[in-house]
Design brief:
The protein contains six helices and nine strands. With 226 residues, the protein is an alpha/beta fold.
Length: 226
């Protein structure tokens, strides 16, 4: 998989891809992530990428020319399965969406900034808009990192145990059940006996029941899908 990310503040994306699972995925050659500074496609010496909105109002707007120039150059080199704009207006990112994108080969992700991007970019280039929540960030970079993490960790060979992702929260519209590890007793707090029994069918039954119980308590709206 290859992901190209367009940003006016590329430094914000250095750390997320330099550690842990995302770093491992890149080192293993499972995912290629390239971060492009939109200012490199600006047409003037000041590398201007924003301007005041027509009609007045507070804030600045990302200009159409440098964004489109960057996109068209990248599209001349490869075909993208999707051109995504990280926006609070978009569809809410969820696990089925992450599963869907993990099967794709080439993604282009645009990070918004300021008051947003010129609407003509959305009308003529963006194929899908994605949000990570009903709130506003200073820019789309952190949202892009969240999106990439959710997708890349699902690629075969990225996680040490490839079955681990299958038991994550939301994979079956349920939250994950409680988990425990050694020691079996700490300060008198004991691990449930069933998990020490070695009876795999009963353990799985317990986990499913606990997943239902936790979902009912913490995220009851998910049970409507289940």
């Amino acid at each position: 998989m290859r992901i190209d990310i367009l940003s006016v503040v590329p430094g914000l994306l250095e750390s997320p891809f330099a550690h842990s699972i995302l770093k491992r995925a890149r080192e293993k050659g499972k995912a290629e992530v390239y971060i492009h500074n939109i200012r490199d496609w600006a047409s003037n010496k000041h590398k201007t990428v924003d301007d005041a909105p027509y009609g007045g109002g507070a804030g600045m707007v990302m200009m159409v020319e440098p964004v489109v120039a960057c996109m068209e150059e990248l599209r001349s080199r490869r075909q993208y399965d999707e051109i995504i704009y990280m926006s609070p207006d978009g569809e809410l990112l969820d696990q089925p969406m992450a599963n869907h994108y993990s099967l794709m080969s080439n993604l282009l992700v645009l990070c918004g900034h300021y008051k947003g991007i010129d609407e003509r970019i959305r009308e003529h280039f963006i194929t899908r808009e994605i949000s990570i929540g009903n709130y506003v960030l200073s820019g789309g970079e952190l949202a892009a990192a969240v999106f990439c993490d959710a997708v890349i960790r699902l690629l075969p060979g990225v996680l040490n145990d490839e079955t681990s992702a299958l038991s994550d929260s939301f994979q079956d519209d349920l939250l994950a059940p409680p988990v425990y590890t050694r020691p079996a007793e700490f300060r008198g707090w004991k691990v449930p006996d069933i998990l020490l029994s070695g009876n795999t069918p009963e353990v799985e039954k317990w986990r499913h029941e606990k997943a239902l119980e936790r979902t009912r308590e913490k995220r009851p709206e998910l049970l409507k899908k289940h």
